[in-house]
Amino acid sequence: MTAPSTGAHRVAVIGDVGGHLAELRRELVRLGADEATGELPPDLTVVQVGDLVHRGPDSAGVVALVDRHLRGGPGRWIQLVGNHEAQYLAAPAFSWPERLDDGTADLVRGWWADGLMQVAVVVAGPGDRDVLITHAGLTAGYWRQILGAPDDAVRAADALNHLIGDHDPVLFRPGQMLTGRGPELAAGPLWAAAATELVPGWLGAGMPFDQLHGHTSLYAWNERRYAAREEIARRTTLDESARHESTKLGGARIIGIDPGHGRVASPSWRAWEPTGSR
């Protein structure tokens, strides 16, 4: 799946929302949405990386807002699945103190059943380089073992999205965060931990395209320290006001945009807006 290209067109990629409706609305207004109606400007497509729900005070409100965009303006809002949405698409994989109400959970299941929620999308980033966007990132092991090592981002996204349905368990393959064991360098695109599974697996592996993810960060923003080892930290640049990180891996890069919202929203964060995107 690729974001639509209609001449001069902006793309904004929003990280994990985590039930913070007011924060999501504020960012959409900054991007040009109508403050009263929420309508998106005609030159904008929004990609959201998943984990819309849990943690914050209004997961139901977040899902309702996204549902209006998905069903009211097809192609203008591209919704990716996160591990927290997956809690309602299969047997829950972990215990979480909040649960969505039945009506809200049904909306999320409806997106999955109707093809309105995907695993991956590709946008053109700076230099017109394709950027593969998933919730947690595509690990090198998963790329080789499950996808057969596609050599470009569009083929990788198509392969991931074709796993939806009969192969959901493969899509939901866990990593260290869920199992509690050591790093799994073939963790799936909903669960890979950036600091121990995603980025380390691609070191020296020749990643054939750029990537962008939410889910976890290499840098602990609130503690102002790296969670990744020194070799990765040296390759990484930070935008602390946006809560974005970019790690160079040869000629490619991995960009993380999880703002780290908890019960309280992060004080400063922004969507990722690639220059000259389509």
Automatic annotation (TrEMBL):
InterPro entries with a match to the protein in the record: Ap4A_hydrolase (IPR050126), Calcineurin-like_PHP (IPR004843), Metallo-depent_PP-like (IPR029052)
Pfam families in alphabetical order: Metallophos (PF00149)
Domain Calcineurin-like phosphoesterase: 10-142
Signal peptide annotation: none
Protein's UniProt name: Calcineurin-like phosphoesterase domain-containing protein
